[in-house]
Amino acid sequence: MTVTGGQERSGTRRSSPDGRAPGTVTHTAVVGAGVAGLAVTRMLDAQDVPVLAFDRNDGVADVWRERYDGLRLNSVRWLSQMPDMPLPRRYGRWVTRDQFVEYLTEYAEPVRRRIRTGIDVRRIRRGSLSRWELETDAGMVAAHHVVLCTGLYRQPWIPDWPGRGEFHGRLEHASAYRRPSDYEGEDVVVVGAGVSGVDIASALLGRGSGSVTVAVRTSPHFLPREMWGVPLQNLSVGNRYLPLWLQDIGGNVIQRLSAGDLSRTALGRPRGGMFTRLQRTGVSPSVDDGVFLPAVRSGRIRVIGEVTGLHAKGVVTADGEEHSADTVLASTGYRTGLDSLLESVPVLDSSGVPPLSRPATRALADAGLHFVGYVSPLTGHLREIGLRARWVARAIAAEPR
């Protein structure tokens, strides 16, 4: 693997004293070249820090290219852009998938020489010649700093339901969903009523034939994208310094005004406050697109309880009932996959997420290990990435080299 990193020492090849194959040396290695990785790479490059970014996909923005048709960002345009490059006004208020891919492709251009696609980083461990060593499928990389930017959605996760092998239909993770026409005439059960599950269930209504059922374990909170012409994300940014209990009250009032009384629907009234749930579990409110909740109330979307297993012709719910399905789409979340990357570096919590407290992140930063893109607040995941990327880049650039 031949790489360069902007200064003479970046790209240097050395032999390690323990006999491992020669590797590449760079000051900072960024793992992942999605939104977070590109932001960090651009900001480090602007400060003349030697940096290389590695991504297992073949092209920049491939993760976004593979998202489903009709996807729009749930964060408003001006709070979804990176600090050093605005999203074009022509994209409108709610940016589409294809527009965002176009934006990321252009955003990557100034640092193309820093990006190595098609390279999978498999392990990260403390190094002998430098602070860190990265084992990739193209050789070893040594770096003084490592910035992990693989994100919260690296590994789609489907529960190990009993009866999976008996099911005669299709079982797919929601990440495999592309367009409603792929399920023409099928009875589809969407497991989960989070943001993606609600989007997919709403889109499936347009197929004409075939039923749509949503399985719900925990009653979801709902928020509209905007209210009275004002994007709700704007309010979240302004409210972030309020006490959590006060944020919960405000969120519940907005939910009641926009979504009505959910206790009168099959979804049921969600327990507790939406901001408290987000902080404790990482589960964001679902977005009411004006289609899903009316369809639930009218019966066009049927709601069933928690899926606890599969049978030959469908799913089994917690009450023991069997429900038929040609396809089961599991909108059941993701895993970070960091546990395998950082197998010898015990810094993750029980769910595989890096520490989020300020003292913990500072301690890791002092050791040259950084994380960007592992927080998803209501103020906006992309906005948070931009803020965090700038902070990390400044901290790395300020260190003597």
Helix content: 25-40%
Q: What is the SS-derived class?
A: alpha/beta
Percent range for β-strand residues: 15-25%
Q: Which CATH class of the largest domain?
A: Alpha Beta
Main beta sheet, described?
A: 8 strands, mixed
Number of domains: 2
So, the CATH homologous superfamily of the largest domain? Answer: FAD/NAD(P)-binding domain
Q: Which CATH architecture of the largest domain?
A: 3-Layer(bba) Sandwich
Distance N to C terminus: 24 Å
Number of strands: 22
Provide the low-confidence segments as ranges.
1-22
Multimerization status: single chain
CA-atom Rg in angstroms: 23 Å
Mean pLDDT: 90
Number of DSSP helices? 11
- What would the principal axes of the Cα set say about the shape? globular
| The CATH topology of the largest domain | FAD/NAD(P)-binding domain
Family: Belongs to the FAD-binding monooxygenase family.
Region (Disordered): 1-24
Keywords: FAD, Flavoprotein, Oxidoreductase
Pfam families: FMO-like
